[in-house]
Task: inverse folding
């Protein structure tokens, strides 16, 4: 699979993980506190995604780098939200 396809799939996976993390964060904010295991899983997936993006950035074109950097910023923002619980 070429780098272009890898990046496209990675960006799609970023969206999926961000949605999962957002749902877990929202669930944790509710009175019952949500599912702690799923919350931890979401945090782990975000960190794994961050590392995968780092690897792809090394071989990406400038245009791809821009897309990956934006996706990485979204991952970082979600990680911060989950740490702060906001």
Result:
């Amino acid at each position: 699979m070429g780098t272009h396809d890898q990046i496209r799939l990675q960006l799609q996976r970023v969206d999926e993980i961000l949605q999962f993390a957002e749902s877990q964060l929202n669930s944790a904010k509710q009175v019952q506190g949500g599912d702690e295991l799923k919350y931890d899983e979401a945090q782990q997936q975000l960190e794994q995604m961050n590392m995968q993006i780092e690897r792809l950035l090394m071989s990406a074109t400038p245009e791809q780098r821009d897309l990956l950097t934006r996706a990485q910023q979204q991952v970082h923002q979600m990680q911060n939200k989950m740490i702060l619980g906001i």
